[in-house]
Amino acid sequence: MIKVKTMAEAAAEGIDVEVLYFVGCAGSFDPRAQRITKAFAQLMDIANVSYAILGKEEMCTGDPARRAGNEFLFQMLANQNIQTMNNYGVKKIVTTCPHGFNMFKNEYPELGGTFEVLHHTQFLNMLIDDGKLKVDGDYYKDKKITYHDSCYLGRINGEYDAPRNLIHHLKADLVEMNRCKSNGLCCGAGGAQFFKEDEPGEKRINVERIEEALDTKAGIVASNCPFCITMLTDGIKAKDEQDNVVVLDVAELLIRSMGE
After folding, report:
1. Rounded CA gap, 208 and 190, in Å?
2. Residue 197 pLDDT
3. Which ranges constitute the DSSP H helices of the chain?
4. Residues 6+ apart with CB under 8 A from 116
């Protein structure tokens, strides 16, 4: 079992923490997303990264509140997070949620929260490039993987290469969907849509997206966002393909290649 220290515990023990892992709401409370949290934590342990979490001191980033129009709640949450992180002298933040990544990178600075911010796919690439993390390039060899770009990592922040590089490290056969990268199709969860009923329409957007994934004939659909993972998994179930196709975060791909 992984024992992850909180920033408070690390401070009390005089441990110099290099990275704050901001787990986020989904990664903390959703059982499916917790598996992504665990996979990423395992990878950081393997790479001997000095990291900690905020634990009970971590608040929601405020992304859903701001997207839904509740600016007061957003600023309240953001200011509390900024104060907590500044109190611990946090310099670098890594998150497994692109929504949190976008908030810290682009929206917290306007409130005085200035940090080095990395998405976990970017951070994992750095660990591999530095030789701190080695993956088994034979585990997924010749297996077809298609990759879904999350909006908040892709179109909004222009990061398309980092997750794909990780898949290439695994020597998998990366098969792109017709709509990918800057032309990718949203899973339907962004902009606080995850927390409300669907708009009227002929087809749920996540089902339409998973149909494009199924057209690639890939056995694995990879992504980098806990909300995308949920939407894509629901789409797989709607198409009754759960026995044939699995949806995984890139961190889960890596940890599985190591036999963990």
Report:
1. 16
2. 64
3. 7-12, 24-29, 31-46, 63-67, 71-87, 98-102, 120-129, 161-169, 205-215, 226-238, 250-257
4. 91, 92, 93
| Owner of token pair 């990264």 | 49
The arithmetic mean of pLDDT across residues 71-88, rounded, is: 97
The closest of 217, 128, 108 to 168, measured between CA atoms, is 128
DSSP code per residue over 209-231: HHHHHHHTT-SEEEES-HHHHHH
Determine the distance from the C-alpha atom of residue 157 to the mean position of all C-alpha atoms in its chain, rounded to a whole number.
14
**What is the residue whose two structure tokens read 């001997």?**
48
- The pLDDT tens digits for 7-23 are 999 999 999 999 999 99
Nearest to 157 by CA among 210, 97, 111: 97
Average pLDDT over residues 213-228: 94
Residue 192 has pLDDT above 50, yes or no: no
Are 210 and 239 in contact, with CB atoms under 8 Å apart? Answer: yes
Q: Higher confidence at residue 125 or residue 206?
A: 125
Sign, CA dihedral 187-38-195-237, equals: positive
For range 72-83, the mean pLDDT: 98
Domains in the chain, please, with CATH?
7-127 (3.40.50.1860), 135-257 (3.40.50)
- Gap between the Cα atoms of 144 and 129, Å rounded: 24
Share of the chain above pLDDT 70, in %: 93
The secondary structure of residue 107, as a DSSP letter, is I
